[in-house]
């Protein structure tokens, strides 16, 4: 009964993002849980988008101007660093790219032959542990910066792989270029609301992360990310149970 009540809080939020009859294909495997075709996952993905902004604020503002979530930016930064920009670090960008790809590869192998919703909760839980590890590594000062970059990027690789497999329209949790393009180019509709929420969540995450970083340092920003990820993981496990029961 308690679990049903908590899921009930998420269902209205999911219905706002995916009203009955809204555009978008069914979730992978054709599963329909909760109040819509994607169950309670849409609001959880909004939270993950906020987390992406948080961790990118930590990495960019505090760790050699590198991204751990936005790999498009890292590829560009790598090019700038190779061109001779001394404010950017080619090694840090390569580390972030490599760790991100390692996380995505690992998640891709773990979820083979498994329903994406089945592994969503466990993978977000692993991501929470990795961010917690990055939080601990911040105590090592400059010596721990590479570890922080690697752990955060590894976690974001896990996140992006499972989100890619879930294929919930307009809620990729990291990429906003295509989202903004769709928002500007397509007629207004249910997808426009999701795109606005997605862009706004990333912006708010970056703003919150920036304020915490500039005012208190990386620890509070990473602690906030850990708390949010643990919450998403718990709810993801409950969604997993709903899929199993169905």
Can I get a quick summary?
With 246 residues, the protein is an all-alpha fold.
Report on this model:
Helix content is 73%, strand content 0%. It has 246 residues and is mainly α. The chain has a single domain, classed as Growth Hormone, Chain: A, CATH 1.20.1250. The protein is globular, with a radius of gyration of 18 Å. Mean pLDDT is 85; it is low at 1-5 and 23-35.
SSE arrangement:
Blueprint: H1 2-17, H2 41-62, H3 71-83, H4 90-110, H5 116-137, H6 145-166, H7 177-185, H8 190-216, H9 218-245
Helix pairs in contact: 2-6, 2-8, 2-9, 3-4, 4-6, 5-6, 5-9, 7-8, 8-9
Provide tags for this entry:
single chain; 246 residues; mainly alpha; Growth Hormone, Chain: A; 0% strand; globular; disordered N terminus
- Corresponding CATH architecture: Up-down Bundle
Q: How much helix is in the residues?
A: over 70%
Q: Helix- and strand-based class?
A: mainly alpha
Mean pLDDT across all residues, rounded? 85
The major pleated sheet works out as:
none
Regions with pLDDT < 50 over 5+ consecutive residues? 1-5, 23-35
